From TrEMBL:
This is TrkA family protein. The keyword Metal-binding does not apply. One of its GO terms (molecular function) is monoatomic cation transmembrane transporter activity. Keywords: Membrane, Repeat, Transmembrane, Transmembrane helix, Transport. Residues 248-332, 342-426 form the RCK C-terminal domain. The chain crosses the membrane at residues 28-46, 58-80, 100-130, 142-167, 179-200, 471-490, 502-528, 540-568, 580-600, 620-640. It is a multi-pass membrane protein. It is found in: Membrane. GO terms for biological process: potassium ion transport. It comes from the Archaea. GO terms for cellular component: plasma membrane. Its main location: membrane.
Length: 642
């Protein structure tokens, strides 16, 4: 076994620090990767990574291809191809759960081999939740298989997922053998077929029904004790004020001092006391006014400037204690027998609608509180509840620090949700049809214009598959064609790129080089061989697959592929086997990290809408991971003998 050098110790220390940051997310993953890059250069005498070598990752074929594929995928998505396909599936399945599940996992799996799977899943989530409500199917039964199918499909081609491209780049560096467009396809087809078969049989039985079928928003988010109606009495100090003036202003120091003087004197507040004075006594209340009903007409509370009148009925969000306190201090009658349902709010006639939206990894709300963002005052958007896995948060919402995977129940104007989604705040997952029509400009349709981005994508794949052009040059040519034909503007093309992923990949590439150069990869490979004892090469290949899959489920797949590929190749060298099948096994393992919701972006996207628990992913994904460990190891050893 090679001895452990000082340089290897330094690199291992950086690996431990990086893994800690990935797990704790004290820094975002992309910033962690850049920090690793800087540290490798600063410690060059030990790591052997000079400055110019460290930044070569930004010009690597893998990173350039990833940037281009983001743009090409956005071009296909903007033409309505994915929306149209989703609509066709809805029409063809007719509400049968088994047929719908088959159509979803089959279509998602195949399309994810050629188009970035994140927008595919983003489009299918509202489709699935809408059809679930229409046909009385629990969305929990469909959303987790949707995410898993997208991950399985990513193994079909070189461009199926970013880690495939990264693995190809590392294969070229370590073995002088990059992937072609369809290098992974023989095994990818087997993996997809086995995975889909599992999801339609065993997986279907294991997926838990966390969200009750046909539950409306108020039932799904357990809002029965957190929505109420209050009638404005003649003597209420709210009369003559708008909602914003009455309840959303701050309490001034003068008002508080005046109230303190009255209370200290043992007197009660006069009947003409201002709302501000009353609230100074009661303290800030965790209550939001959502809707005003007057003589059969409804008004959106945050958008109307109509003064309140006696007899107005206010629909409010808040717990019973806060609502009772509000009613008592502001002379409102609590209509306790009136039940507030989603239908009552949905059939209001005003522009506010109920919707669900998820916080993804790239959301501008991630790590911030609602108090920081001020959605209600800036966008007239009110958050009614936050679902985090199977937990629903109703109280002190402004203080909740939002995390990736959180699902928000919103009351939003039709014309504001598009801005929030376009600006990267939220991703809409469920809402009324008119909300999606407002976002998409109408129901999904497919016209002749869609042929252009489709033809561009197919041309890129064909040029790369026939070895007429390197994939990164063909993809860049496709980007030029996408912009030149008007499919996307140049600014939208740049916006389509997930730049945090680009920096994550480019920043981590030199870490793999340092592992190889300092002998760290060979040392770990030797330990792995020693630990495996007398295991035959095929069993060792399966062990590498399992270790990679577990690690990828705990941190980002990109970080895992950079760390594990040098180790896998070194392990193969230690036992005198070919390094390429070990490298391919790692590639498949990182693309199918099923065990947690944090291992892969699409898992996070369905985590909230499906109402899943953290352990549900291991419950369904664990057996699938073991099954694919055997299937992948055997298939890889057949296609590329050890």
């Amino acid at each position: 076994m090679p001895s452990l050098s000082m340089g290897a110790l330094v690199v291992f220390a950086l690996v431990v620090a990086a893994l800690t940051l990935f797990v704790t997310e004290w820094l975002s993953p992309d910033m962690t990767a850049i920090a690793v890059l800087v540290a490798l250069v600063v410690l060059e005498p030990y790591t052997g990574v000079p400055a110019r070598t460290a930044i070569e990752g930004f010009a690597s074929p893998a990173v350039v291809t990833i940037v281009a594929m983001y743009i090409l995928s956005a071009g296909v998505e903007s033409a309505g191809v994915v929306d149209w396909l989703a609509g066709r599936l809805a029409a063809l399945t007719g509400g049968d759960e088994r047929r719908l599940l088959t159509a979803i996992v089959g279509t998602t799996g195949v399309s994810a081999g050629f188009v970035n799977n994140t927008p595919v899943v983003a489009v299918f989530i509202p489709l699935v939740t809408g059809l679930s409500e229409r046909y009385g199917i629990s969305p929990s039964n469909l959303l987790l298989p949707l995410s898993f199918a997208a991950m399985l499909g990513g193994t079909l081609t070189l461009v199926g997922t970013a880690t495939n491209l990264l693995a190809s780049d590392l294969s070229a560096q370590l073995l002088g053998r990059p992937f072609s467009m369809f290098t992974l396809t023989p095994v990818g087809v087997v993996v997809l077929a086995v995975g889909v078969g599992y999801l339609l049989t065993v997986g279907r039985a294991l997926v838990p029904e966390r969200v009750h079928p046909a539950a409306d928003f108020t039932e799904e988010f357990e809002m029965d004790r957190h929505l109420a109606q209050l009638r404005v009495r003649e003597a209420s100090p709210l009369v003559g004020l708008t909602v914003r003036e009455a309840l959303e202003g701050s309490v001034s120091d003068d008002a508080v001092e005046a109230v303190v003087d009255v209370v200290d004197a043992g007197e009660s507040l006069p009947t003409e006391a201002t709302v501000e004075q009353v609230l100074a006594v009661s303290g800030p209340l965790d209550v939001d006014v959502l809707q005003i009903d007057r003589d059969g007409e409804s008004f959106f509370a945050t958008a109307t400037d109509r003064p309140l009148e006696p007899g107005d009925v206010l629909t409010v969000r808040g717990n019973r204690q806060a609502v009772n306190q509000l009613a008592q201090t502001l002379d409102l009658r609590d209509l306790a027998r009136e039940s507030v349902t989603a239908d009552l709010l949905a059939e209001s006639g005003h522009p506010g609608v109920l919707a669900e939206a998820v916080i993804d990894r790239e959301s501008r709300l991630r790590g911030r509180t609602l108090a920081d963002v001020q959605l209600r005052s800036r966008f007239d958007v009110t958050v009614l509840a936050v679902r985090r896995g199977d937990e629903v948060i109703h109280e002190d919402l402004t203080a909740v620090e939002l995390s990736a995977g959180d699902l928000l129940l919103l009351q939003t104007p039709l014309d504001k949700m598009g801005h929030l989604q376009d600006e990267g705040y939220l991703t809409l997952t469920e809402g009324p049809p008119e909300l999606f029509d407002a976002l998409e400009g109408g129901p999904p349709s497919l016209d002749a214009a869609a042929a252009v981005p489709l033809a561009t994508l197919l041309a890129v794949i064909a040029l790369a598959a026939l070895d007429l052009l390197p994939i990164y040059i063909a993809a860049l040519g496709g980007v030029v064609a996408t912009v030149a034909t008007g499919t996307l503007s140049a600014s939208k093309a740049y916006d389509a790129v997930s730049w945090n992923v680009v920096f994550l990949l480019a920043g981590l590439l030199p870490l793999g080089q340092a592992m190889q150069a300092t002998g760290g990869a060979a040392f770990v490979g030797g330990l792995l061989v020693d630990a495996a004892g007398v295991l035959p090469p095929l069993a060792l290949l399966a062990l590498v697959y399992l270790l990679t899959a577990v690690l990828a489920s705990a941190i980002t797949p990109a970080a895992t592929v950079v760390l594990m590929i040098p180790i896998a190749v070194a392990t193969a060298t230690e036992i005198g086997a070919s390094g390429f099948p070990f490298l391919v096994a790692v590639t498949f393992a990182v693309a199918t990290a099923f065990l947690t919701p944090i291992g892969y972006q699409t898992n996070l996207m369905v985590y909230g809408p499906g109402g899943y628990r953290f352990t549900d992913f291991a419950r369904v994904g664990g057996p699938l991971q073991l099954l694919l460990c055997a299937v992948t190891s055997l298939s890889v050893s057949v296609v590329w003998p050890l």
